[in-house]
Amino acid sequence: MPELNAIGIVSADTARSIAFYRLLGVDFPEDGEGHIEATLPSGVRLMLDAEEVIKSFRPDWTREIGNQLALAFECASPAEVDELYARVAAAGFQAEKEPWDAFWGQRYAQLRDPDGVPVDLFAPL
pTM for the complete prediction? Predict the structure, then answer.
Protein backbone atom coordinates (compact mmCIF):
# COMPACT_ATOMS: atom_id res chain seq x y z
CA MET A 1 0.00 0.00 0.00
CA PRO A 2 1.48 3.40 -0.93
CA GLU A 3 2.22 5.72 1.98
CA LEU A 4 1.83 9.50 1.99
CA ASN A 5 5.38 10.85 2.00
CA ALA A 6 5.17 14.51 1.03
CA ILE A 7 2.87 17.47 0.56
CA GLY A 8 3.89 19.97 -2.10
CA ILE A 9 2.82 23.58 -2.40
CA VAL A 10 3.55 25.74 -5.43
CA SER A 11 4.63 29.09 -4.06
CA ALA A 12 4.46 32.48 -5.76
CA ASP A 13 6.98 33.87 -3.22
CA THR A 14 9.02 31.09 -1.62
CA ALA A 15 10.87 33.41 0.79
CA ARG A 16 7.55 34.64 2.22
CA SER A 17 6.17 31.08 2.37
CA ILE A 18 9.29 29.89 4.20
CA ALA A 19 8.90 32.72 6.73
CA PHE A 20 5.23 31.76 7.28
CA TYR A 21 5.91 28.06 7.84
CA ARG A 22 8.94 28.75 10.05
CA LEU A 23 6.58 30.63 12.38
CA LEU A 24 4.66 27.36 12.63
CA GLY A 25 7.82 25.46 13.54
CA VAL A 26 8.70 23.97 10.15
CA ASP A 27 12.49 23.71 9.97
CA PHE A 28 13.27 24.59 6.36
CA PRO A 29 17.00 24.66 5.57
CA GLU A 30 18.64 28.02 4.94
CA ASP A 31 19.61 27.17 1.38
CA GLY A 32 17.22 26.27 -1.35
CA GLU A 33 16.59 27.74 -4.75
CA GLY A 34 13.30 26.97 -6.43
CA HIS A 35 12.62 23.81 -4.41
CA ILE A 36 12.91 23.46 -0.66
CA GLU A 37 11.64 20.82 1.72
CA ALA A 38 11.53 19.97 5.40
CA THR A 39 10.75 16.69 7.10
CA LEU A 40 8.08 17.13 9.76
CA PRO A 41 8.14 15.20 13.06
CA SER A 42 5.57 12.80 11.58
CA GLY A 43 8.05 11.90 8.84
CA VAL A 44 6.00 13.58 6.09
CA ARG A 45 7.90 16.12 4.01
CA LEU A 46 6.52 19.60 3.32
CA MET A 47 7.83 20.86 -0.01
CA LEU A 48 7.69 24.33 -1.54
CA ASP A 49 8.30 24.81 -5.25
CA ALA A 50 8.60 28.15 -7.01
CA GLU A 51 6.17 28.61 -9.89
CA GLU A 52 9.16 28.70 -12.26
CA VAL A 53 10.15 25.17 -11.22
CA ILE A 54 6.71 23.81 -12.08
CA LYS A 55 6.65 25.71 -15.38
CA SER A 56 10.05 24.19 -16.27
CA PHE A 57 8.39 20.80 -16.80
CA ARG A 58 4.76 21.94 -17.30
CA PRO A 59 4.98 25.11 -19.41
CA ASP A 60 1.18 25.39 -19.57
CA TRP A 61 0.79 25.36 -15.75
CA THR A 62 -1.32 28.17 -14.28
CA ARG A 63 -2.34 28.89 -10.71
CA GLU A 64 -5.80 27.62 -9.88
CA ILE A 65 -8.23 29.62 -7.79
CA GLY A 66 -9.74 27.94 -4.75
CA ASN A 67 -8.79 25.87 -1.76
CA GLN A 68 -7.97 22.43 -3.08
CA LEU A 69 -5.62 21.78 -0.17
CA ALA A 70 -5.63 22.54 3.53
CA LEU A 71 -3.03 21.84 6.21
CA ALA A 72 -3.68 21.34 9.92
CA PHE A 73 -1.05 21.75 12.65
CA GLU A 74 -1.70 20.11 16.02
CA CYS A 75 -0.61 22.25 18.97
CA ALA A 76 0.26 21.03 22.46
CA SER A 77 -2.45 23.07 24.19
CA PRO A 78 -5.27 25.55 23.59
CA ALA A 79 -2.92 28.29 24.83
CA GLU A 80 -0.42 27.37 22.12
CA VAL A 81 -3.16 27.71 19.47
CA ASP A 82 -3.85 31.24 20.72
CA GLU A 83 -0.16 32.20 20.96
CA LEU A 84 0.79 30.80 17.56
CA TYR A 85 -2.20 32.41 15.85
CA ALA A 86 -1.32 35.79 17.40
CA ARG A 87 2.37 35.46 16.45
CA VAL A 88 1.63 34.60 12.81
CA ALA A 89 -0.97 37.38 12.49
CA ALA A 90 1.41 39.89 14.12
CA ALA A 91 4.04 38.95 11.53
CA GLY A 92 1.69 40.26 8.83
CA PHE A 93 0.26 37.01 7.52
CA GLN A 94 -3.43 36.51 6.79
CA ALA A 95 -5.45 35.63 9.87
CA GLU A 96 -8.62 33.90 8.65
CA LYS A 97 -10.58 33.05 11.83
CA GLU A 98 -9.56 33.84 15.39
CA PRO A 99 -9.19 30.97 17.87
CA TRP A 100 -12.45 29.53 19.19
CA ASP A 101 -13.61 26.53 21.18
CA ALA A 102 -15.11 24.30 18.50
CA PHE A 103 -18.12 22.13 19.23
CA TRP A 104 -16.07 19.03 18.34
CA GLY A 105 -13.86 19.53 21.41
CA GLN A 106 -10.84 21.40 20.08
CA ARG A 107 -9.42 24.90 20.30
CA TYR A 108 -9.28 25.87 16.64
CA ALA A 109 -7.98 28.77 14.54
CA GLN A 110 -7.52 29.35 10.83
CA LEU A 111 -4.80 31.16 8.88
CA ARG A 112 -3.85 31.40 5.21
CA ASP A 113 -0.32 30.97 3.92
CA PRO A 114 1.07 33.49 1.38
CA ASP A 115 -0.37 31.45 -1.51
CA GLY A 116 -3.86 31.25 0.02
CA VAL A 117 -3.53 27.71 1.38
CA PRO A 118 -5.80 27.30 4.42
CA VAL A 119 -3.78 26.40 7.54
CA ASP A 120 -5.61 25.28 10.67
CA LEU A 121 -4.23 25.23 14.20
CA PHE A 122 -5.86 22.95 16.74
CA ALA A 123 -5.47 21.37 20.17
CA PRO A 124 -7.76 19.26 22.33
CA LEU A 125 -9.73 21.21 24.94
Answer: 0.88
Rounded Cα–Cα distance for residues 44 and 6 (Å): 5
pLDDT digits (tens, 9 = 90+) for 42-80: 999 999 999 999 999 999 999 887 666 889 999 999 999
Count other Cβ atoms within 10 Å, centred on residue 67: 10
Which residues have a Cβ under 8 Å from the Cβ of 120 and sit 6 or more positions away? 70, 71, 72, 73, 108, 109, 110, 111
Q: Are 60 and 51 in contact (CB under 8 A)?
A: no
Alpha-carbon gap, residue 33 to 49, rounded angstroms: 9
In tens, the pLDDT along 13-32 reads: 999 999 999 999 999 998 77
Note whether 19 and 25 are within 8 A (CB): no
80-116 burial: b if 16+ Cβ within 10 Å, else e: ebbebbeebbeeebebeeebeeeeeebbbbbbbbbbe
86 contact partners, CB below 8 Å, separation of at least 6? none
Bridge partner list, 74: 122
